[in-house]
């Protein structure tokens, strides 16, 4: 792992103060492949490059459209009709000259893995208007095939006022701070103290005595399509409390024609039966809000959230070699739903996972 230079220390001073020199040094070595320079991807790109990763390779085979120019700060009017990855290169490099930024016109995951199989993380961010989960699953299958390293994977897509994100960090180990005392409670004006387990406890305590190593296995992407409410389902959340984005994602997966509010509503009429939920959970406004170019504000919100996930996963130190990368803090979930109408972002485990051990 290469050391931070004085120039880098000055540039990343604020970040080093926030998460430490060692974390910044590891982030400096992170190599990330991004497939699809979409408007929502531009927000992730911005945050990663400013944070100081080592290398970003942008793979894209599309030409700059009018919608790209309106929704993405990387493109200007003179870029219309030109190669999207090359047009983005200049502006991305200006963000941070210390980051190596490359482009590739190939978007075939199998071919990309032959070139960039040693990369730490892959971001799937090309635009999809229907069957989002199926498209992502196919891409991930090729990324993992023949690649024992199994890079961390992040998927993101934005439609209209909604954004959908998914992460698969595999068998994820992390360090969690533990308190000196398990709890304090009042009993007849006296304080009862329950100490932490002693050294014979099964909990693996870190060398400083204040951290334990836990892990969580991220569910496969396709499992989100197996969820339902009738019978012996694994969802404890009432159907009415699930984010609208979850239901829209399910309806988009079932969409058999072009994306319009009417077609999406027809798809939902079938989808809600499979899920075992009431059809009136989604209204006409919900279908309309999922159509059209992605909203700039929505791209910024989900881009910031997912970039932070990548930075955390890339910057933390190794705890044990057998564990691989370890991370501070409990992971919040593997699915992200942003609704631009309410400026709300929901982070969920889908399907729900057992408590980390």
From TrEMBL:
<feature type="domain" description="THIF-type NAD/FAD binding fold">
    <location>
        <begin position="12"/>
        <end position="104"/>
    </location>
</feature>
<protein>
    <recommendedName>
        <fullName>THIF-type NAD/FAD binding fold domain-containing protein</fullName>
    </recommendedName>
</protein>
<dbReference type="GO" id="GO:0016925">
    <property type="term" value="P:protein sumoylation"/>
</dbReference>
<comment type="similarity">
    <text>Belongs to the ubiquitin-activating E1 family.</text>
</comment>
<dbReference type="GO" id="GO:0019948">
    <property type="term" value="F:SUMO activating enzyme activity"/>
</dbReference>
<dbReference type="GO" id="GO:0031510">
    <property type="term" value="C:SUMO activating enzyme complex"/>
</dbReference>
<dbReference type="InterPro" id="IPR000594">
    <property type="entry name" value="ThiF_NAD_FAD-bd"/>
</dbReference>
<dbReference type="InterPro" id="IPR045886">
    <property type="entry name" value="ThiF/MoeB/HesA"/>
</dbReference>
<dbReference type="GO" id="GO:0005737">
    <property type="term" value="C:cytoplasm"/>
</dbReference>
<dbReference type="Pfam" id="PF00899">
    <property type="entry name" value="ThiF"/>
</dbReference>
<dbReference type="InterPro" id="IPR035985">
    <property type="entry name" value="Ubiquitin-activating_enz"/>
</dbReference>
